[in-house]
Design brief:
The chain has about 160 residues and is mainly β. It has 1 helix and 13 strands; from the N terminus they run αβββββββββββββ.
């Protein structure tokens, strides 16, 4: 019975327009359809989208749970004189980011929430332009990210954010 279920039911996760979509694909053969002349089971799969989260920015299909808890804008303080504003795109885990340095220079880019472990409250964000990741601790009570590190900071440097 276990093999029958594994062979006939597949669960897939992919990103569509920046939002995660969970798909349950159930082959017709799981419902007792006859094999074709070659002994192969024809499979016209049924598609089911399972929404996981409904926040104030709209439905978000996510493995991360309630994304509204992570707000729509983050005020970020980084190392080495940089600060920024990260604004979440509606219905996604993608943020458009703008940074300013104390010397007057600026930068912009895209960051993407890759994981949020709700047991430990560890958050990991990927920054395309740096080909690297941010990691920090989410504090739901104060709505902050603290003790942040990155894959490109000098040793001992940290970042933090206030979630709005």
């Amino acid at each position: 019975m276990k093999n029958l279920i594994q062979n006939r039911l597949s669960v897939n996760l992919f990103v569509k327009s920046g939002a995660f979509v969970l798909l349950l694909l159930i082959g017709q053969s799981a419902f007792g359809q006859d094999p074709d002349a070659k002994g192969q089971v024809r499979s016209l799969n049924r598609l089911t989208t399972v929404p996981v989260d409904n926040d104030t920015k709209g439905t978000v299909n996510s493995l991360f749970g309630n994304l509204s808890a992570l707000g729509s804008q983050w005020q970020v303080t980084e190392c080495c004189g940089w600060s920024g504003t990260w604004t979440r795109r509606p219905n996604t885990n993608v943020f458009d980011a703008v940074w300013r340095h104390t010397n007057g220079s600026s930068a912009s880019g895209v960051v993407e929430l890759k994981s949020w472990n709700q047991s430990t409250n560890e958050v990991i964000i990927y920054r395309q332009s740096m080909n690297g990741s941010y990691k920090a601790q989410y504090n739901p009570t104060s709505r902050t990210l603290t003790n942040g590190t990155t894959t490109w900071y000098p040793a001992g440097q940290i970042w933090s954010a206030i979630i709005r």
